[in-house]
Amino acid sequence: MTGRMMEAIEQILIQEAPDWVLVYGDTNSTLAGALASAKLHIPIAHVEAGLRSFNMRMPEEVNRILTDRVSSLLLCPTNEAVGNLKTEGVAKGVHLVGDVMYDVAKYVGEIAETQSNVLDELGLKPKEFVLATCHRAENTDDAARLTAIVGALAEIARDVPVVFPLHPRTRAKLDSYGQLALLDNLIVTAPVSYMAMVALEKNATVIVTDSGGVQKEAFFYRVPCVTTRDETEWIETVESGWNTLVGADCGAIVRAVKCTSPRERKDISPYGSGDSAKQVIELILGYDK
């Protein structure tokens, strides 16, 4: 898949001859764009540079490390990301700009609840439901992990509604493992729009997820998060008390969600002030090759 993307992106780059290529995050397309650009000697700006999970089994970790190595501008969302690059001996082109997701979260958060009626459609009341997502291969491709996570959601749903926008791959995996019955007592929906997702996030009492983006959005909107992974790139969310790592332990997930004595939570702003995109543009325009 990555190789095919490189071939197609290369043709576009040759045709368009851009001054820069801006790549974001850690997906396969991020790496494909970065490698195709590097081979054509087009400078690369990497947004979300420097993040590390220190788990090389994650394809995202491979993608982000390789992308950082070929980028001219490494646009870091946090001080931790800057420190990771320093540890790896990378200093040139490194800039702390904050998180562009926070820019978006501030903007969309103000309008989502007036432009989305998802709560009414699902019969939900604010702060009276749990929101859950699960899509990472490390969870969906492991029958024991996926069964434990969805089993925990089923247990939680005995006491409080659990909304579960279900990724098609997750449904297919549950079906192949013979565990679709675990969904019976959950409020299962198809994947929802971004606006609806933000409305659900802001109004949930707790969020259970394996998504990096949802972890951050939970933090942005000050909603407690329970993360079904063994590590996270967004350690600030954990250190501030808003995010709890539980892995795929059914009992730990249930306890974290039902905890009546929440950890002390800090009101910190490690992801900038909401002007990250502006800083990115200024750095690209002002770059001295």
Automatic annotation (TrEMBL):
It holds the Pfam family Epimerase_2. InterPro entries: UDP_GlcNAc_Epimerase_2_dom, WecB-like. Its EC number is 5.1.3.23. The keyword Isomerase applies. SUPFAM superfamilies: UDP-Glycosyltransferase/glycogen phosphorylase. Residues 1-284 form the UDP-N-acetylglucosamine 2-epimerase domain. CDD domains: GTB_UDP-GlcNAc_2-Epimerase. Keywords: Isomerase. GO terms for molecular function: isomerase activity. It comes from the Bacteria. Belongs to the UDP-N-acetylglucosamine 2-epimerase family. This is UDP-GlcNAc3NAcA epimerase.
